[in-house]
Every structure is written in structure tokens, then in C-alpha cells.
Amino acid sequence: MIKVGIVGGTGYTGVELLRILAVHPDAEVSCITSRSEAGLAVAEMYPNLRGHYDLAFSEPDVAKLAACDLVFFATPHGVAMRMMPELMAAGVRVVDLSADFRLKDLDVWAQWYGMPHESPEWAEKAVYGLPEVAREAIRGAQLVANPGCYPTAVQLGFLPLLESDLVDSTRLIADAKSGASGAGRQGKIGMLHGEIGESFKAYGASGHRHLPEIRQGLQQASKLPVGVTFVPHLIPMIRGIEATLYAELTNAGDFERLQRVFENRFRNEPFVDVMPFGSHPETRSVRGANTCRMALHRQENSNIVIVSSVIDNLVKGAAGQAVQNMNIMFDLPETRGLEAPALLP
Amino acid sequence: MIKVGIVGGTGYTGVELLRILAVHPDAEVSCITSRSEAGLAVAEMYPNLRGHYDLAFSEPDVAKLAACDLVFFATPHGVAMRMMPELMAAGVRVVDLSADFRLKDLDVWAQWYGMPHESPEWAEKAVYGLPEVAREAIRGAQLVANPGCYPTAVQLGFLPLLESDLVDSTRLIADAKSGASGAGRQGKIGMLHGEIGESFKAYGASGHRHLPEIRQGLQQASKLPVGVTFVPHLIPMIRGIEATLYAELTNAGDFERLQRVFENRFRNEPFVDVMPFGSHPETRSVRGANTCRMALHRQENSNIVIVSSVIDNLVKGAAGQAVQNMNIMFDLPETRGLEAPALLP
Amino acid sequence: MIKVGIVGGTGYTGVELLRILAVHPDAEVSCITSRSEAGLAVAEMYPNLRGHYDLAFSEPDVAKLAACDLVFFATPHGVAMRMMPELMAAGVRVVDLSADFRLKDLDVWAQWYGMPHESPEWAEKAVYGLPEVAREAIRGAQLVANPGCYPTAVQLGFLPLLESDLVDSTRLIADAKSGASGAGRQGKIGMLHGEIGESFKAYGASGHRHLPEIRQGLQQASKLPVGVTFVPHLIPMIRGIEATLYAELTNAGDFERLQRVFENRFRNEPFVDVMPFGSHPETRSVRGANTCRMALHRQENSNIVIVSSVIDNLVKGAAGQAVQNMNIMFDLPETRGLEAPALLP
Amino acid sequence: MIKVGIVGGTGYTGVELLRILAVHPDAEVSCITSRSEAGLAVAEMYPNLRGHYDLAFSEPDVAKLAACDLVFFATPHGVAMRMMPELMAAGVRVVDLSADFRLKDLDVWAQWYGMPHESPEWAEKAVYGLPEVAREAIRGAQLVANPGCYPTAVQLGFLPLLESDLVDSTRLIADAKSGASGAGRQGKIGMLHGEIGESFKAYGASGHRHLPEIRQGLQQASKLPVGVTFVPHLIPMIRGIEATLYAELTNAGDFERLQRVFENRFRNEPFVDVMPFGSHPETRSVRGANTCRMALHRQENSNIVIVSSVIDNLVKGAAGQAVQNMNIMFDLPETRGLEAPALLP
């Protein structure tokens, strides 16, 4: 039984970890911290957990966390990097769901997150936890940087194209859309139901923090330099990301084998589902599930490949992928605790 | 391993049964019928089931169903009653999620469902499957009539009051609200997103089919004659029922012990959760879960008891309760396959 | 041309006043105040007003307001009562959309609003601005207390019953539901889209500030003592209130003439629409319009009258009714500026 | 007073025409036809119109339509083209909101709409009614083909770039998203609230009927050959389209003057609003209004121009633009009847 600690469990990522771990047969949450809510029962904040947890939020305490086998960070950026050296020294393994250890170039990190990075040593050692790319490194890692939600949906959709060198890597476009839970659980006017219900908009169109993370991941998969444009949008719903990806095939004749390339790439991946050519994945088909579902399209005789890729931003885009990483790190079957189908309708 | 058949699995109740049974360790769906979709893979109709089922819809076939240990009917009313005599004769056990066997007074049934009842023998023998009331009868039943969604939420909330004879049983009011999935998956203009999104209304306010079912259940719990007014409403969301119940305490002094009465009534019920006095249950706290969550309220010195009761109409109001009944019928732990917390947010 | 001032225009009630007044041929907004947003163009906060207003928010300034013909207060409670004596002395007329002057019993006011009332003189003189009840008093009033949203929907539906002494006035039940805009535009976690989307719940079930206002209004219409239970609920949508009202007919025979009683009561009311008996008013049918639409129901031989009453909480429940009151106060046609049909779908 | 006829008024476009015309001071609807609903009062089908129209749907009747000054077609494709020769011969003027007369290449039309075109003469004479491009031709036209919803949002956003020859016209990408009302008011399972609520997906990604219309319009604006990829998506809301457009600047230095190019292009357009560089237009900011609102973005040093363009698909994307066209055709001020601000929130 893996003894799990969660730092910063009051947000949507935190409650999602608790939801998934509640039925995980090999893991048990032994402590969950929140500075602001210390003393409050988690089931009082999240009534769906009534009857599932007796646990209360506690003050962050390195000693207590150090006694865990695995600690998840579900904190805003800037928190994990400060606690990491001490925890690493204590030998704990960590999956950090925040952005602190996702970027290798710390100048870029500092520029996008507005503060200098305080743990360069662990930024270098951290393994970027996209299992479809780095499964073996994850297995041996002490610190896994869990990918962002958009980067997960976008990278998985572009990877087969870049790895096989099929497209013009300098002209990638990712038009992505997310439900409101991606913005977290903070009292911002802009995220009120009255503000975002029955409306749709782009945001961060001039530059979003997930852009450098996407670029880093795509560059790693590509022999040639990558140029990518990424525009996120806000959907008036709670869970789900859809990313429509556009890339220009170098050789239009490659369209014929494209479906096979994708299917082969993900044949052994338990959480990536390539639908038949011309399908339209719906975000609801992955609601609550750790699946990335995608499909390919071509318009008339165009040489533009269109990929539509969907995930649940809180699951494959956050807590589910974190548990998948935990399973890998502890040599459990990768799907353990993540078997249930999505909630549809 | 219980061999399960499903008749009429193309609706929301059908896909919900499939979702729940996909991870039930002691049951396996061996056939699912649909006249209109015979031949279609269930995962093609419901992409959330891709990778979970190889099954395709087949033509209804009594012989094949008779080879099952348990058959769920997820059909419109009028179907189950016609097939029941033959299936019962074959010795199969059945949980009928349709309305065919819920009412004992077949004149009332005929009046509300617009056709004569064709299986009076089994209407009499059928056990009304509200486990919190009829657990022992369910255990031995060959045919269980799975309760309607509104009747589940309304009965559970009123039961402690009527069983303890605390209220004026002639003045019960149930103001209930449901998400759109309760209307099923049929191409009706009135259920389009464009028609019901961003809007709210009562419907069936002059009389709804669940009224006689509610009245029958409440009358059974009450020594005195029951008079109940029931108004359903349509919420612009997919899953969830909230019922606000109003009853007049015979003795206002009883307010002090009311919370205890409710807690005692449901102390051993795995799927009924009485929250602290004055709480407000949210439908999302039971989304995807088999729980009925409720709380009590009093306004100033009023002698009106207010009960707010929530369920997921597709789970405790349909497929989840059906699986709970199956667990009881097959002497499994009642919570088997129904342990996962609700999906929140 | 009526010179209009608006105090506290950054909330939903403020933007709604601006939207309506933008096309009102006889009124012009000459100043709008907001302490927090002084200097900001209103069209920058509310992009739907781009091209309609050049105005910017300014610091509250009694002299400037005193130069207006009419001032609307769209402030949280506690603000208007402090500024009122000075404004009244200056001879300005005011429609207060806040709760400050709605209750006549200031002890009750203090109890529900958590502070002593600071302008008892004007609380006494203020006219409660429900035009269907107090049209003549409104015409001559210097200070009009614009009714709350729930109280508007609930009172209009109960009035014909109480005024005609047809029901047991001690057993009134109002089960009301509102969209999220009723909670205003403040950064509360509980009003995030992620918290209230796809969910439904009661709130304030043990007592809500609109209860005493409803009781006061109903009592005024009734010869006999009034007892009313009022439970509000939160609908996952933005605009709209539906109130389902339950009352016990003293004489069940009166059901036959009930529809006529309602139609006669509102025959000359431009903003109350009584639908045919047995109809189901939808909130979308009044979205953006100043209409209260209602219908009557009876279940079988019950003596319970059911009234379903809908309004747009921001229009007939706030800004629209305020403009209706302005029209009355300035002897304009009552419908001026309020003629457009609701936005459906 | 313009005497208006509407053919096929039972859909969302029809009710929207009625809503707008209800307050148009210079037009009056004198007949509205519907084969299926003949005899039904329009206010019975659309309760928001109660009190605004006495009109009932009538059988289509050319003589009656010929007596109108202007006829709007709000029919599925294939209807208008059959009635057009007779109506044109009668001298009536027509604004056709269907797709029948939008494409000049009738082979392309036949390919996308699955039937041969039956009125080639009028297909040639019809004026494509995008006022920002063809105002003068519209003024004198007898038959105006009202643009599709997506084509309106997409063309307006691309026009300044193509007209000024600033971008690579062969690499245009339009990622567009629409609310559900765009699919019309028909009882399709795929448009149920239960199917599309809380979900997001692309559709028609391999080819959508609006693609050739978009291509035709863009080609007309461009000296060089146009290549455009267009992917529509379904948003879980009712009204609104957002199109995010991507184009590659030929000369990255042109970014500096881009905002000015857009502002100049639309300076005199009453219904196009160019927001400050870097803004994010929301669909709610145009809900119910005839405005197209757009903004420009650039990511770091990229040479990709990003345009986000929003409209209300039922207004500027259909009925509002049709009334704008009517105003032009009858020499009225172009904004007549279209002055009200959008409904926000």
C-alpha cells in the first residue's frame, strides 16, 4: 500500500486526486495539507467525498510528508520548488502537478512565471511525466513534473507527425479549448458563472504559459526546428479540453498512411485512443477518464493534416496522469485505479 | 460471475448500466438488445465505452435472454410487460427499470400509461425495488420493479416523517427538479439544447406519471391517508434531481428530535446520507454515484419541515439502484461496483 | 429628457440599467459612480456597451447626483440609506434597487441585514415600488424602494389569491429558483462556473432575506394573517426566476373561476401575462424582458392551487421594474423603453 | 411601412426575425408561412412573442407573398430556389436566409447540397448580402442571398488582410466555434441537451457546407489564389460564434500597421467593432446584437496574425444581417431596428 501525501489539496486538482485515489486498491492518502483550511474535514469541503475519507486538511509539515512514499503537489506555481530540496533530501518521491519543474530552460520559466526559479538542481533532474514519451525515465524518477493540461492534449496529437518527420515543423497551429475547471478554484470575477456561462472567447491569445511547455515537448520530438502557435479558449462547461491541430504535410501522398502511423504509435498505450479516420471525438467521451482520444481529418485535396484531440483536463490533463505516473513509479499496472469508463452523458 | 442481459440498451439508462457494469467485478454483460440498432457495436454508439466492451446490439431474443442470470429492462413502458411472462417462465430473474411493474393498481397504471396492463400476474408478484424499504423482499424476488427517479428522491425524503407519524400526511408537497437526461434519448424538439438550455420551467404540473407511484409508496409508509402534490421541473443540466419536500409537523416540538429520526432511519443504509441540519445538498455531490443525500431545514418558528433530497437520476434514480438490487438479489455486498465517489466538479 | 444618475453601476443590475436606458428615448444617463472603478469607461468593463456610451465611472458625488432628475441606486445594502437624507433634501427623486427601503419594520430589517437602519425617516416615506400594487403612490413618490427579484415573482403570483380571499393564508409555500446573476458580480468561490455549473441546490432554506419582504407584501394584500414558507434554489444558468407557488383553496369549487380571477386582476397590467390554464411558463420567454408570465395548475381533485410564475431577475426583478417605476414617476407611458420582446432562444 | 412576408418561420431564424421586426418602426410582418404549423398562432409556438403578434402561420401562398414589399426566406435549402422565379416575376424583393443563392458556381452548390440547382438564372443575379463588401449592389438588388453564419464571422476577419494583400493567401486557417442554435430547431438526437450539454467537439472537420462559401468570398477579396482550411466546432451554449483565424504575414514588419489597417477598413461600418490590439472578444458581448466584434493578436516574434472574431449567429449571422440588408434595400438608416445593445450577462 503506497502511503500518499497531497500538498495543497483544496483546488480542483486536489479533489480529483482524492476522488481517484478513493478507489485505488494500492494507495492510501495519509495526509493532505492546506495552509488556509487546516482542520477542515476534506469531506466538508467536498461533499462527494462524504463517507470516503475521514481525513482533515493539515498544516504543511515536511516531516509528515517525508514519511509518505509519494507526495503529490497540487499547488499554485512557486510552492513546490521551495519545498523540493528538503523533500528530495528526505528521499520521498514526488509527482508535482504544478508548473514548477516542467520547463528545462529556467530563463524561460522565470519569464513566464514572473519569478526566478529557486530549485535549479531539481529542475534539471525532474522527469517530464508524459508516459507516452518518457515511461522508462518516469519509472526511475524521484521527481516527476506532471505535464500541463493543454500540453498533454496538444503534444499527444502532434507527436506522431513530428516523430515521423511528416510535416513542416515550423508551421504548427494548436487551437485549443478548455472547460472552466482548468482555471482552478479561486474567487475571480472572470470565472463566475455569470461571466462565462453562455459565452465563448479566446484568452491568452498573445501568449499563454503553456506555450513554452508545448514548444519544448514538440521540439524534443522533432529533428527540425519547431514553430508553434497556440491559442487557448474558454468553453462554458466544467471539464474537458479539445485541441484542433493543424500541420502541413511535407508530402501530400503521406495522407494515405497517416491513420496507420497514429495507430501504430499508440497501439500499446492504454490511455490513448485513435478513432477511425474522420471521427469527431467529444470531450464528454473522456469525462472523468484518463483517456486522450483523437481522430484525423483531411479537407478535399488539402495537404493540411487536422487532428482533433480530447482529454479531461482534470484527469489525463492533471490528476489521472499523476496517478498513472505513480503507478509507473511503483511498478503497478499502469491502469490501476484508472479503469472506469467516462461519465456519459 | 453473474451473466447479465440488457434489453433496450440504447437510451441513457442503458449506457449507464454499461458504464457501471464495466467495472463490476461479479457481473458480465453477455447480451444487449436493440431492435433499431442491431449489429451496431455499443462502443460506436457510446464512445466512452471504447476499449471497455466488444459487444454489439442484437435483436431481442428470448432464448438468449433466458440464458442469462439476470436481465435488466431499460425500455420504454409497455415492452417489459409483454416479454415478462415468457421470461419468468424460463426462470430468469429480472430488474425492470421501466414503469411497467411499479404500480399495484392496474387501473391507475392503465390511466397514466394509456394502455391496459398485459401482465397482471407479474404486476402483482413484482417487488418494488426500493432497497431502503423492501430489502428482504428484493433478495428473494424473481422480478424487481426498479423505482422511478423522482419517486426515489421523494420517497426517501418523506419516509422517516411518515413512518414515525410526525406530519400531517394529507398535506405533503414535493417540488422536484430534474436534469434533462431524465427525459431519455429521443429526438424531441422540446429537449433540444436550443430549447432547454439557459431556461427553467415546470412541466407536468397538472399531473405526472410519477405522482401515482409516489403516492403508492408514501401511502404504504403511512398509517393515515396520504395527500401529496408533486410538481416536476426541468433544469438546464444533464444529470441530477433535487426534491424540496414540505410537510407540516403535527407537533412543532418534534423539530428537536427530527434530525435524530432521520439519522437513525438511515444509519445502516449505504446509499443514504443525512447531512447536518441546515445543510444544502448539491446534485453534483452525487453525480455518477448511487447516493441519495438529504438535509433538513426549519424557517424561524414555523412548523413546516423542509427536506432537500438529491440523487443522480441515472444512478440512484435508475441504473445504480438497479445494480444495487442485483447485488441484493445475488447476495453480494450491496455496494459492490458502486463504490466510486461522485464526479465533482 | 430625464437626466439619470446611477450609483454603483459595476454590478449586473448596473449594466442592465445601462442596457435598457441605452435605447430609452426619454432618459439619458449623465453620471454613473463607482468608488472602485472611477475613471474606467463603462464600455471597457462591459463590452456590449461599446459604441453606446462614452461615459466613465466617477467617484460618488452628491452634488453631481443632486443635479440629476432621477438617481438609481444599484448598490449593496447599507449604501443608499446613508446617502439618502442628503439626496432627498436636495430634492432628487430616487429609485433604490437595493434592499435598504423595502421593509417597513426596521427591527426586522436590522435583524436580516445585520446592521441598524440609518434612515428611518425615509424608510417610512419610501414607496414600495411594485407597480401592480402601488402605481399611484409611485407616481407621487420621491423615493421608491424597488422590490427584490424573488418578492416580485412570488407576490405577483399570490396576490390574486389573497386579495380575493380564496386560500388559507397561513399555509403558503413558495418554492423559487433563480439563475446565478441574482447573486451579483463578486468574486465568490461559491458562484464560480466550476462550482455551480451542472448542479442544482437549495440555499437559504432556513431563512433568506427575501422572506420578510415577501411576507410584508403578502400580508398587506390579505385580510387574514399570512404564514409563508419560502425556499430559494440556484439554477445553473444566468438569468431567470421561476417560482412555483402552492396554496390551499378554502373552497375547492373556486377552481372554476380561478383563471378568470387572475386574468381580471392583471387585465390592464402591461407587464403581467396570465397564460392559459395548465400552461408552463419558461424563464427564457421573459429573458431580457420586463414581463412576469404565469399560469395556474390543479392536480386531479386536489384543492391545492399551483401557480408557476417566471420573470427575468435582472429586468422585472430589478432594472426593468426600476425603469417602469421611473416611467410612472415621470408620467411617461409605462412601457416606454421596455417594449422589446424577450430573447428566445 | 414595409410590408414583410416570412416564408418558413418556425425555426430559430424565423423567431429571431419576428423578435427584431417586432420593434422595427418601418416594417410590419403581414404574413408568415409554415406548411406544418399553418393555423397556429406564432405567439403560441414562441411565448416570448405573446402580446407582440396576433399573426398565425399560414400555408405558403405565392399570391399573398407577392403582395408584400419584401419576403424573407427562413427555410431549409432547396425551398427558396423553387419559389424564386415566380416571386421574382411578381416583382417582390427577397432576402433569402437559406443557402440557395449564396454560391455562384452551381456545380459546387450541387455537390455540397446534394441536389441540382433549380434556379440558375437567379443564382447568377442574386447579390451576396455582406453589406461590408457589397452595400451598393445590395441597395439595388431584387434578390439578396444572406450570408451564412460562419462565413460572416470568417470573411469579416480575413477581409482586411486579403484586400491589403498582407498575408500568404494559400495558408489561411479558420477554427470556428458555434452555439447550438446554428443547427436549427429540428428533433435530432445529436442536438439534444443530453448529448451536447457539457461537451465540446469538432464536426464537419473533413468538409462543411460553409467552406465553399467562405472560399468564394475570400477569393473575391484576394488577388492571389486562396487556400483555406475551415473547422467548425459545437459549443455547449445557444447563441454565438467565435472564429479564430490564422494567417501568415508576408512581411512581419507589417504587424506594426495591422491594427490601423483593420480600424480603417471598418471605420464607417456601423456593425463591425475592432477592439484594441490584444483584446479578447466574448460572444456574450454581441448576444442579440447585430455586431461583429474582433481583435488582433501576435505571439512573441511570430509572423502569424491571429484574429478573433465574434458574432451572434442568429443576428449578424442570420436575421439581423437580413434586416440590415432590408434597411439598405429600402434606403432606411442601416441601423434602424438594430440599435439595442447586446444582452450581457
Automatic annotation (TrEMBL), chains A, B, C, D:
Keyword Acyltransferase: no
Segments passing through the bilayer: none
UniProt GO cellular component terms: cytoplasm
Role: Catalyzes the NADPH-dependent reduction of N-acetyl-5-glutamyl phosphate to yield N-acetyl-L-glutamate 5-semialdehyde.
GO biological process, one term: L-arginine biosynthetic process
Record PROSITE patterns: ARGC
GO MF: N-acetyl-gamma-glutamyl-phosphate reductase activity; NAD binding; NADP+ binding
Cellular compartments annotated: Cytoplasm
Active site annotation, chain numbering: C149
Enzyme Commission number(s): 1.2.1.38
InterPro entries assigned: AGPR, AGPR_AS, AGPR_dimerisation_dom, AGPR_type-1, NAD(P)-bd_dom_sf, Semialdehyde_DH_NAD-bd
Name of the protein: N-acetyl-gamma-glutamyl-phosphate reductase
HAMAP family linked to this entry: ArgC_type1
SMART domains the UniProt entry points to: Semialdhyde_dh (SM00859)
Semialdehyde dehydrogenase NAD-binding domain ranges (all copies): 3-141
Catalytic activity: N-acetyl-L-glutamate 5-semialdehyde + phosphate + NADP(+) = N-acetyl-L-glutamyl 5-phosphate + NADPH + H(+)
Pfam families: Semialdhyde_dh, Semialdhyde_dhC_1
